[in-house]
Structures are given as structure tokens and as C-alpha cells.
Amino acid sequence: MRFFTQRRHFRDLSEKEVLALAISSEEDDARIYRSYAERLRSDFPDTAAVFDGMATEEDEHRRRLIALFESRFGGTITLIRREHVAGYYARRPVWLVENLGIERIRAEAEAMEHDAEHFYHIAAQRSSDPATRALLGDLAAAEAGHQRHANALAEAHLDDDARAAENRSAHRQFVLTWVQPGLAGLMDGSVSTLAPIFATAFATQDTWTTFLVGLAASVGAGISMGFTEAASDDGELSGRGSPVKRGLASGVMTTVGGLGHALPYLIPDFWTATITAFIVVFLELWAIAWIQNRYMETPFFRAAFQVVLGGALVFAAGVLIGSG
User: pLDDT digit string (tens) for 104-119?
Assistant: First the structure.
């Protein structure tokens, strides 16, 4: 297999290279933890303090490793990083993880420490050289100790009240960034497309034409809602989060809301398609009421009354216009 990759295999590394690899890995992990801390500091200061402490621990590990390297091999540290070694545990890019929410970041940090500990344990077991085995065992113990220290830091900085407050803040951010724009899009797509779709259906009684009108109305409304949401607020002052995320949520859910009762018109029989579309509309409106109740804390029956009444009026307008 070594002919098919330019990366070194771990079994081919010398003790000097293994130690240099550990140094670069500790440096990378410290940077990742500091990036997480900076990302979370404004909204989740207690969790940011945990990551600051973990970065400091990584710095201490790196300092001890450098001292050991210099005592054994001199002051010039070999340039070798985890991406140079085949099979070495990888780290996900910070920008891929930091936008997934606080619990995802916490889980990623825990996985980072677990992966490092597991890798060094396996490497130590496979090593035939006593000195190398001892070195890898020490690194595994350091990672395990870091994981325990991370738990201690979390207990020190994240009591129940602090964690509850941060979880409430994370939930609020999720609602502002994803739920509100998505709900607005779903309502617009489900309700505003009722009139043109059912007007076309009853005017032509042609299922394919009705589907094309519904498809055009849904996609057009989705594009319009997505751009409108993204352009209306950059999220800096309102705290509603990324305009790209909000625009995506609004645009996709608008399209989904309209397509829900347009897709039944792929059925060739007009009345079968129309009855199916009626059922889909009913389910859409109740889904909107449930989301309002679940995430917006709107009393369910009040939400249902508002949504069903509005949808019924638009639906009736479409049927009357199409039948006329």
C-alpha cells in the first residue's frame, strides 16, 4: 500500500519523528481549543473558559514534549504533522464544527482527546521497541489525564445554572437562526401557493398543468423568500445569526411548503390528485401549528386556529377563482 500514498506509515517513523509528531499535534489542538473559546466567548463565556483551560493544558504538554525532544535529539524539531502520516487521527476543520452549536463543539473536544488517547495506546501495543513503547504509553497517559482535567475544568466553570443558561442561549440562537426563518418560509410556501395551485386545478382540471404551476410558484417563492431573508438583516445587531443560514432555511422551507400540495398533481387522475392535495394541505397546516407551539411557545389551539383559518381563506379563494 505504501506505493499508493505519499504519506508515511506510523510503523516507519523513528522515535524522533514520533515525538515531533506529538509536538505538532499538541500545538494544533491548542489552536483549535482557542478558536472554540474565541467563537463562544460572547455567548457562552463559561464554556469559553473551559476551552481556554484546555488550550493551556495543551501548551504545557507541548512544552514538556519539546524539553524531552531537545534532551534526546537536540534543538531542531523535525517538521512532521498528522496529515503526513497515514492512518493518524484527523481533526475536522474548525469552521466545519464551530457553526454546529455548543453541544457539538463540546462533543468534538471530547472526541479529540479520546482519539488521541486511543491512538497512542494502539501504537504502544504494536511497538516492539521498549523505549518507543514507553514514549507512546506516556503520551496516552497524558491525553487521558488531559481528558480528566477537561472534565474538572467543566465542573469548575459549568455548574448547573451556568450550563442551563448556556443551553437556553443556544436554544434561543437556534430558534432565531433556523426555526423562525424556516417557519416563515413554510407558512408562506404552504399558504401563499394554495390559491394559484387550486385555482389552476379547478380552472383546467389538468393535473400536469397544475403541477407545473405549483412547481413554478414554489421554486419562485423559495428563491424570493430566501434572498429577502438574507438581505433583510445581516444579524450583527439583531443577533439572529448568519444571513446565509437564515436565507437557506427560509428558501428551502418555502419551496417545501409549496411543493407539498403540488406534487400530488403528478397523479394523472384529477380527483385523486386533488383529494390527496387536500390531505397534504391539512397535514402542512397542522405541522405549522405544532412548530409554533413547540418552538415559539404559542398555545397549540390558538396557533392551529390562526393557521387553519388563514389557509382555509386562501384555499377558498383559489377554488372560487378557479371554478369561476
Answer: 677 677 777 777 787 7
